[in-house]
Design brief:
Rossmann fold, about 250 residues, alpha/beta, about 45% helix, about 25% strand, 11 helices
Length: about 250
């Protein structure tokens, strides 16, 4: 997906993004606390949420820590930023991740959650982030593992496994650009009503689903209805690989 397609996908999702992605208060809180713990976020830190979407996690972070300095929320999607402004008081940037990384700006901690797979020039991005970070700063990249447990239709899973970058390659780039790297897996159990999850698929809640036509989406959902016919809820683990790069 190039920048224009990525922008279009997230612009289309912006109005109901929180509804599609906000699985539960407990889910967001658990992942937020994992993020805070991994980057050792403190009240004095300048924090950047790069690829912030509607600001779900920045908002959740501020509920846990009363940061003295305003968070910087950056996203390529203008409509996502418009929604984020309704959710959180922050400094906003509507630029691509790579363009943001070229700005003459300094900060202490940076989060890149489920964005790195959209970036073609990963080495340049990470090199620029290293330069922007203050001494002893931390860059946290959260991405999905090579294989996922999501109850998606077969073609979607196959496309995911074909296109998802290997976290080990990202880890190597971090090391090559000067970071000390720690890897950790985060697993959060989910139980989502079947009808809700099928609605999420229909609304293309994951960017990879934008590669499928309406007919393919409906065919895929039909196959899932047969597969999970006797289930009311879909239970699976949402797993992330956390790559902590310390300067």
């Amino acid at each position: 997906m190039n920048n224009n397609n990525t922008n279009e996908h997230y612009d289309n999702l912006a109005n109901n993004y929180d509804e599609l992605w906000f699985y539960s208060e407990g889910y967001v809180n658990k992942l937020t606390n994992e993020i805070i713990k991994i980057i050792d976020l403190s009240v004095d830190d300048k924090f950047v949420d790069l690829g912030c979407g509607t600001g779900i996690y920045s908002k959740s972070i501020l509920k846990e820590i009363d940061l003295k300095k305003k968070i910087i929320c950056s996203d390529i999607s203008k409509k996502m930023i418009e929604q984020a402004k309704k959710n959180i008081f922050a400094e906003f940037r509507t630029v691509s991740a790579l363009e943001f990384s070229k700005k003459p700006i300094k900060y202490d901690k940076l989060l890149i959650k489920e964005v790195i797979h959209h970036i073609e020039k990963k080495e340049e991005l990470i090199r620029n982030i290293y330069t922007q970070l203050n001494e002893k700063g931390i860059c946290l990249i959260l991405l999905l593992p090579p294989k996922i447990e999501y109850p998606l239709f077969k073609k979607a899973i196959e496309l995911y496994e074909k296109n998802q970058p290997d976290y080990k390659d990202i880890s190597m780039i971090l090391r090559n650009e000067g970071f000390d790297v720690e890897e950790k897996e985060i697993s959060i159990p989910l139980s989502i009503p079947k009808a809700k999850y099928f609605n999420m698929i229909e609304n293309r809640y994951m960017s990879l689903l934008s590669d499928f036509s309406e007919k393919e989406i409906h065919t895929g959902i039909s196959s899932l209805r047969k597969k999970y016919n006797n289930r009311k809820n879909l239970n699976f683990n949402d797993r992330f690989i956390a790559l902590k790069g310390s300067k």
